[in-house]
Amino acid sequence: MLDVMETPAHERRQIEEYLRSQSGDDFEIEHVEKLTSEYVLGHQYDVWDAHTSDGRWWVITNPVNLYSQDQIKSMDIALSFHIGLMSRVMAREPLQARRQDAWVLEVARRLDVASESLDRAREVEDFQAVGMRLRETLLTLAAKLADLGYQTDAGASELQKGNFKAWASVCAESVATGSSTQYLRALLKALSEKTWNYVAWLTHARAAGRPDAQIALSAVSQTIEAFIVAVRRHHLGVPERCPACASYQLRVEHAGNHSWTRICETCGWEGPAEAAPPAADHDPAREADETEETGRQLAPEGECVPLRDLGIYLSPDQARSMLDQASSRAAADGDQQDWTNPFAFFFPEDASLADAQRIAYTAFLHVPADGAELAYACDDAACVNPGHAREILLPGESRWMCGIVEKVTCRPARLELHISMPADGARRVFVDHAMLDRYGFGDASSLAERVVFFTPPDDQGWVHLLPVQRRVDYTHGSAADGWLHPTHAVTDDQDCPCGSAEPYSACHGGQITSGAPFPAS
Fold first, then answer.
1. Got the DSSP string for 22-71?
2. Is 318 helix (H, G, I), strand (E, B) or coil?
3. In CATH, 9-92 is 3.30.200
4. 71-89 pLDDT per residue, tens
5. What is the pTM of this model?
């Protein structure tokens, strides 16, 4: 029997945000209520009743979709239709939901090829060929498991990547250590060994038929999925539980002043969220040196995450609405324009701005090192997935030189910048054409009359170069004045150290009222 459910505020906000994303500007939400939750084949489906200016809708989750109540009167029919529709979608690519890890993409592709060859198979030789394709799929899985770097005391680094059963055993020992995971470890070993033996038999079976190939395909698919989930389980570690009721249903919400609070959805317990690991716990310079020594950059983990989905790293329930609030950036009078930086995240409690990529990296991994910027290994310029990011320290030289690009000479492999500096004459600096793409310059003409900073050259003449944003107001020079706050604290009633003779609280220590719009320039 379906009973009316509680309607948690954070879940209601998510449904309301989904409804707005599917509607126009004049859309209004009148009422949203959670009616029921059902579990079918391990998936939870929540049914919501939504009253809007565009009519009444059934909104059903996992994944979210909406259905007009004018067309589907019954909630049971809408739920059944949704489950059937989602099942058909997932059935087209049964491994798609588990292919977020880059290391398994080639394995999944080979499994798809084997499945397609089974669909076309007619004779015994065709079914044997399916076995050969499945064998290559397992060998590819072995190679990928070897690339993950799992080792044992027996010296797994000496194993051949083509030894599937050996590498599967090494991976099982690594991802399922200790007595608490002995059954998972035994399952992975047995599953890999029996699957490999069955596939090896299929490749030589002179009486192999379609059922035999189907069993082999199913066994290989199950083996791959088991290792994907086991590796991911190992990476995620032990899930956090509520200290009061031991529930897994914990969410994180922003509590102001850049702090976060953990809330248990089951019993309502609240407590401070753990702070991100400090920057001192890692060394970006050493990590960069190791990358340079190995000669390869690690592939990004997982799929790209667009800015609108930043909430998966902050609060599964509330951060999306915070982003919507931040993206509007509008003052009470409605006359303030959006921030020009699409990654700007506005905290209204102290009127501060921060970068969404840095927020996600700090919340999900650790605080970036001092003076480090984030670089992303993927090609999506809007990605905020911290798993794709790495830290790059800014050049630490203290004697930077400043000049202006008077002329640019285009050469086949380089751009020659003619840079003039105050009281130091002109210099010729050669840069790669890729610099234009890195900074979003349309062409070489964007460098002309641009201020640049560069370091003193090393023994071979190499320098670090940083271009400055071109000014748009030509009534003033490029240099802007700023006041450097002293390293010691200053109290509100002290004279401001800047020399204004004003109290610190009325000068550089002044605060904007909580929630007030950011001052326009």
1. TS-TT--EEEEEEEEEEEETTEEEEEEEEEETTEEEEEETTTTEEEETTT
2. coil
3. yes
4. 888 888 888 888 888 777 6
5. 0.45
